[in-house]
Amino acid sequence: MGELIAVEGLDGAGKNTLVTGLVDEWTRRGARVATFTFPRYGRSLTADIASEALHGNHGDLRESVYAMALLFALDRSAAVAEIAAAAEAADVVILDRYVASNAAYSAARLHQDADGEVVRWVADLEFGRLGLPAPDRQILLGVPAETAMARAESRASADASRARDHYERDSDLQHRVDAVYRRLADASWQSAWHEFDGADIPALARDLLPG
């Protein structure tokens, strides 16, 4: 059974770069690696509806913290069988965003902390009722929020298809999300966390490779 490793962080923190680097390092070392990216835009109706809401559609849907969190949770729930199959076949399954993102964003939107009610609700919903497997380890890309936001803005300016959504344009929200993420990591929420500054992907790959 392969290890589930979730990569978390703000938009623009460098999650895709980290995932690509880990896959390259582990594949070079002979490990079998599978990857999932959430939300599954273009593949999942609930993820697409959430994205549309964050870009101004579907009336006041995005105003409901719990409704948005449920859409993202249902997207992950629809991939449970795929994740299980990948874990059976691979040594490592990397999850680019996972349940902690729902916890961090929901708590930040409600001005709650990592031990708040909505974080417990997310865990009960996704790991409990929806049966998502808990990650074995989680990586927080701990680059400063200002750096991540600047990267996201630059990326959107260079590529019209990657326009920033309602969450990404809210700098106060991004700072609160960053704070909740760090507290989730400090509390080892659901599993052990590793905070990574993006400097040495090969070293991180050596530290995390199972066996």
Automatic annotation (TrEMBL):
<comment type="function">
    <text>Phosphorylation of dTMP to form dTDP in both de novo and salvage pathways of dTTP synthesis.</text>
</comment>
<keyword id="KW-0547">Nucleotide-binding</keyword>
<comment type="similarity">
    <text>Belongs to the thymidylate kinase family.</text>
</comment>
<keyword id="KW-0808">Transferase</keyword>
<feature type="domain" description="Thymidylate kinase-like">
    <location>
        <begin position="7"/>
        <end position="188"/>
    </location>
</feature>
<dbReference type="InterPro" id="IPR018095">
    <property type="entry name" value="Thymidylate_kin_CS"/>
</dbReference>
<protein>
    <recommendedName>
        <fullName>Thymidylate kinase</fullName>
        <ecNumber>2.7.4.9</ecNumber>
    </recommendedName>
</protein>
<dbReference type="GO" id="GO:0005829">
    <property type="term" value="C:cytosol"/>
</dbReference>
<dbReference type="GO" id="GO:0006233">
    <property type="term" value="P:dTDP biosynthetic process"/>
</dbReference>
<dbReference type="InterPro" id="IPR039430">
    <property type="entry name" value="Thymidylate_kin-like_dom"/>
</dbReference>
<dbReference type="InterPro" id="IPR027417">
    <property type="entry name" value="P-loop_NTPase"/>
</dbReference>
<keyword id="KW-0418">Kinase</keyword>
<dbReference type="GO" id="GO:0005524">
    <property type="term" value="F:ATP binding"/>
</dbReference>
<dbReference type="GO" id="GO:0004798">
    <property type="term" value="F:dTMP kinase activity"/>
</dbReference>
<dbReference type="Pfam" id="PF02223">
    <property type="entry name" value="Thymidylate_kin"/>
</dbReference>
<keyword id="KW-0545">Nucleotide biosynthesis</keyword>
<dbReference type="GO" id="GO:0006227">
    <property type="term" value="P:dUDP biosynthetic process"/>
</dbReference>
<dbReference type="InterPro" id="IPR018094">
    <property type="entry name" value="Thymidylate_kinase"/>
</dbReference>
<keyword id="KW-0067">ATP-binding</keyword>
<dbReference type="GO" id="GO:0006235">
    <property type="term" value="P:dTTP biosynthetic process"/>
</dbReference>
